[in-house]
Design brief:
The complex is a heterodimer of chains A (354) and B (179). With 354 residues, chain A is of the alpha/beta class. Chain A is built from eleven helices and 14 strands. Chain A folds into two domains: 218 residues, Rossmann fold (3-Layer(aba) Sandwich), CATH 3.40.50; 115 residues, 3-Layer(aba) Sandwich (Rossmann fold), CATH 3.40.50.920. Chain A starts with a strand and ends with a helix. The chains are: A alpha/beta (354), B alpha/beta (179).
Chain lengths: 354, 179
Amino acid sequence: MAKVLMKGNEAFGAAAIKAGCKYFFGYPITPQNEIPEYMSRELPKIGGCFLQAESEIAAINMVYGASGAGVRVMTSSSSPGIALKQEGISYIASCELPCVIINVSRGGPGLGGIQPSQSDYFQNTRGGGNGDYRTPVYAPANLQEVIDMTMDAFDVADQYRIPVIISADGMIGQMMEPIEFKERTGRSLPSKEWAATGTNEEREPNSINSLYIVHEDLEKHNWKLDAKHKLIEENEVQYEMYQMKDAEFVVVAYGTTSRIVKSAIMDMKKEGLNVGLIRPKTLWPYPYKAFDEIPKSTKGILTVEMSTGQMIDDVKIGNNGRFPIHFLGSPGGSVPSPEMIAEKIKNILGGEKK
Amino acid sequence: MADHRFIISGFGGQGVMSMGMILAYAGMLEGKEVTWLPSYGPEMRGGTANCHVIISDKPISSPIVSKATSVVAMNLPSLTKFQDSLEDGGSIFINASLINIKPDRKNIKDYYISANDIAMQLQNSKIANMVMLGAIIKETGVVRIETVEKVLEKMFQGEKAKLIPVNKEALKKGEVLQN
């Protein structure tokens, strides 16, 4: 299929529909408004339903209901809006319902600003809802990945019966890039026998519930969820290793920031400095094992984030005390430049030589 | 040149976003790597808006243009804001209908196009952007003019198809200007 030029936010919508999502519930917020705009235009054409809810809390609970009925469903928002959805996400996770949640994040805390940010790393990977739950988190760095990861997200959600989050930022949402819908072999997925679709008096009713008042039952439920999380950690980690051979220095970055880092790496290569990149494509499960592949030539690690440092906690776990870790952050809306990154690395290496 | 990096800037409503989008679209049709990144701050109608467009033979890492090969200034605030983002030897395209000063930069190529005046001659004030685009394409050779015409045919369909001839004419006017 020929390539088409699309805005990131539209690409989320197009990929969701391609993946069979016919239901969308949301509430407007910059910088993700083109997603509901796209869905409101396209879903009625295919007999689906777009509904603008009265709030983010209402929207996520509509997702909860639709997912319980066994259909593919999605919501999207941006940082403070995702904060409002946390209660619903926790319930959906407990009930083991599949859905896709897109977070086109902006600066925080509070209302923050509307420029690109990665300060939702904790919110996305650790969750703001209560209880022992996890959500797979995909971090696309370009619009082709927006397409591919969104489609995969629906499969992963269905396979493991779990809410899946896609973590983007304002730049990914607003920019345009050519994309294509590749031929893909979807996963073979179990049928949704658990869905509350009406018994027709032919089977026992299915109930969807997150209340376990008998403590033994709750404990059993949580160990069951835990086993599922461990399976996801084993099978669903995705990451990219870039220019790692003989790297003198390694940068860890994801999403938008990883693109800027690649520019910096190419600039430094021209000056004879070998720098590599570990790019997590899934933020949970995190690619801890990537750190075992760092070459011995490496003198240190730099974590670059559009925050004051959140992913750096996972970098420390993966690194496990092996290399010194440094940090470069830009919280609140400016995207770091390739020059800033190169200068930081040169300063660190210069300092070490003294 | 394997790498074209544009900053295109002007008042909201002057068509700077579409100018960039048409360029990116044409680049894609010619099999090149392209990115288009809009400013999306708290802009308002009449405020200054801009977009960054990269067209390259190689995969593009950062879509942000920090050093432009070309700056397009459709209004005076754009010239003031972005002339320093131009790399040495780069080109600046100035809308002479609205800007009557020269850039205070050395080692750059400056071009003056009376985009609004030419658009008015064509009796369509909205196509100043296409006049400018004609000039940019002629001077940078970033894409072929025929490809841009193809993009226009894809963009303006049905009711809007009647707008194709005047847009093509505007492109041609901009092109001729450079000879």
